[in-house]
Amino acid sequence: MSLASIGVLTVGDLMEFVPARYDDTRLKSPSDAAHDEKVTIEGTIQTEPSVMYYGKKKSRLTFKMLSGSHVINVTFFNQPYLKKKAGIGDTVTVTGKWDRHRLALSGQVLEVGQYKRETDFEAVYLLRNAIPLKLFRKLVLQAIELYGLYIEETLPADLLQKYRLMERKEAIRALHFPESQEEMKQARRRFVYEEFFYFQLKMQALRKVIREQSGGIVQKYDLAKLKKLIDSLPFELTNAQKKAVNEICADMKSPYRMNRLLQGDVGSGKTAVATLALYASVTAGYQGALMVPTEILAEQHAKSLHDMLESFGIHTALLTGTVKGKKRRALLEALASGEIDILIGTHALIQDDVLFHNLGLVITDEQHRFGVNQRRVLRAKGKNPDVLFMTATPIPRTLAITVFGEMDVSIINEMPAGRKAIETYWAKEEMLGRVLDFTEKELSKGRQAYVICPLIEESEKLDFQNALDVHAQLSSYYDGKFTVGLMHGRLSGDEKEAVMKSFSANELNILVSTTVVEVGVNVPNATVMIIYDAERFGLSQLHQLRGRVGRGSEQSYCMLIADPKSETGKERMTAMTETNDGFVLSEKDLELRGPGDFFGRKQSGLPEFKMADMVHDYRALETAREDAKTFIGSPSFWTGDEYHLLRAMLTESGVLSDEKLD
Fold this sequence. Notes:
Residues 431-591 form the Helicase C-terminal domain. By secondary structure, the protein is α/β, with parallel strands linked by helices.
């Protein structure tokens, strides 16, 4: 027996060990019991209990029991000793799984005599065989009886009153030994809020510390020049873009270093916002840097920034791994002298010999693709430059305020006017011929198509299509009509670049690829996206892939080839055909997959909550965040005696140093 093996080292750990679930031990009438529900039913034994043995040490004990007007067939597996406990005419209560259709009860616990229970709800704990359940309950009860009076209240009194929350000592008792379902719910409500509030308090305090210790630069940009650039754009900024630009510019003007995340759906116009921010920094006398994950993306950004800013006298330059020799030396000299205003590039930007004259703004695109060290090295190229992270992965609001809690978040959730919504269709495998015929019509108009597959080659375990096979099939199907390229993860970086450039230049009509097709790659001529075995992908990934098309003025299409067996798979396909809104889909994805899987793997930034659930309790999360912001921003929080426990908690967690409290 080892309580330590389940993380119980102190009496406090024991009292705060959260039940996994509760068994409803109230007596149920057979007519009220739901099918497959675990129930407790009282009745009188009508037939002599009989035991039948089969196999090695296996047995089945059966008898009939009368409960109200129902005769129930009761079965106990591998508990033959129960035969001696009760006989015909005895009143018993049986707890077990109810089969409504067969009027049968698969028993787990048999008690003889009139039903007596101290509570209607019993806590069940995940103990991993460390200790018997009954003994654990007994230890928890002893701990509460002996030490319950010493439990300190940690939530401020005004919050307890505002939300009518249980006091901590009362909530701990009700968590383990609830007297009713309502009391159990109230105890859970208290701890869900407490967990979120503690977490958000840490995040908001961290944000305050980062801001105050950052010693940022005040960028006094030229508003008139910025407005002139906005007026010169060939399109009108959406309201969401305007709001994002205003938030970023306000950060740049403040004495604190900007630490902001810019979230925008595929094609929502993040690049335009980034360009305006970089231009604002240049008008303030600084240089800007934009770091992106791949060369082809860097080239695209460099071209669009050059086109937008050249007539305003802004000198932009591109630095990637392929820029070498004299050209590279000349570029670095121009950068160090301040001749280059904005540098766009890949991780080549963070090499030691890349020196800026006066770096004011750093933007990283698809920031999750760069390591923390890479981002830090780029920041170190200037004296506390403002930092903006961009991502085209719509992150649900609940995750954004949890994972990026110490950052400010700007969201572009509007599409530019005139952009045609991508038409999405879900087709079963037998309809593949029709999909290919439709694609042929599009290709005949001079358009291009992506075809995405989940695997590179055949796997015995997984029967779904793979890129090598599909490439061979399509090359044969369109033989002599269209050229088919192939891209997958086993190609070298240079090989991938070469394939992508051929597709961008319309030398390839069809690109068969695994999911390595880069986020942000811009091929306006591609109007068809076919995704094989679409049920194998998460909603966010499907949406990202769909965003590779629909970048030009022509109508674009996304075809999901899928035969999902599960309800979740069917829900995903339906959701994709119903909306093009990445934020709506990301919320649905979070709901279907849970926060742990949202990022494809367990995200280190996700906190482990004992009771709180970010998806179902999102309102409590948002409320706790607003409350935490108010507290951290209030001078009385840092001095008032009533908040000393919360301040101590922040110090213990490493968010604050002891000096901060003096």
